[in-house]
């Protein structure tokens, strides 16, 4: 299997690895797992008073494609509103990284992590709207 330069770059130099203090009110956490392989992805977003994601961090215990997908989405969500972040589709992630077909589910994990983080933020800040599945 051959991997794209972008994928290898994100895998070898992952952006925004780490965690925020989960007790910080502006921080929300999305934790998702892939039943098929057992990999786990944690994505945290830091949302400012205007509802814009100003920072993001991740920790992923998984394959290279999952790590690259998480690294990429931490870059993509920055500067976006929660609604805009929810528009990030796994197909765009897979295309950007040129994921091979057997690795598409790794990009789905990243999309799910965004949804879970946004859902967590909303559950903390807006009563109601909490019903995003944690695992696909
Ligand atoms: Fe790895 Fe699905 S088998 S995320
Ligand atoms: Fe485990 Fe990609 S997330 S194989």
TrEMBL record:
Q: Which domain of life is it from?
A: Bacteria
Instruction: Extract the SUPFAM superfamilies matched here.
Output: SufE/NifU
Recorded hits in Pfam families, A to Z, give: NifU_N
Domain (NIF system FeS cluster assembly NifU N-terminal): residue spans on this chain: 3-126
What molecular functions are annotated in GO for this chain? iron ion binding; iron-sulfur cluster binding
GO cellular component terms, alphabetically, are:
cytoplasm
Q: Which GO terms describe its biological process?
A: iron-sulfur cluster assembly
Q: Which residues form the signal peptide?
A: none
Q: What does this protein do?
A: A scaffold on which IscS assembles Fe-S clusters. It is likely that Fe-S cluster coordination is flexible as the role of this complex is to build and then hand off Fe-S clusters.
Task: Give the family, as the similarity comment puts it.
Answer: Belongs to the NifU family.
The record's annotation in NCBIfam families points to: iscU
**What name does this protein carry?**
Iron-sulfur cluster assembly scaffold protein IscU
């Amino acid at each position: 299997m051959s991997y794209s330069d972008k994928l290898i770059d994100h895998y070898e130099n992952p952006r925004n690895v780490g965690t925020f203090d989960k007790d910080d009110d502006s921080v929300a956490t999305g934790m998702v797992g892939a039943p098929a392989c057992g990999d786990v992805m944690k994505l945290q977003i830091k949302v400012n008073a205007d509802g814009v994601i100003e920072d993001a961090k991740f920790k992923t215990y998984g394959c290279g494609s999952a790590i690259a997908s998480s690294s990429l989405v931490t870059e993509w969500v920055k500067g976006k509103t929660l609604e805009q972040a929810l528009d990030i589709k796994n197909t765009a992630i897979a295309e950007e990284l040129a994921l091979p077909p057997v690795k598409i589910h790794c990009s789905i994990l990243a999309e799910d992590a965004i949804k879970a983080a946004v859902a967590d933020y909303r559950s903390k800040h807006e009563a109601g709207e909490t019903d995003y599945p944690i695992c696909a």
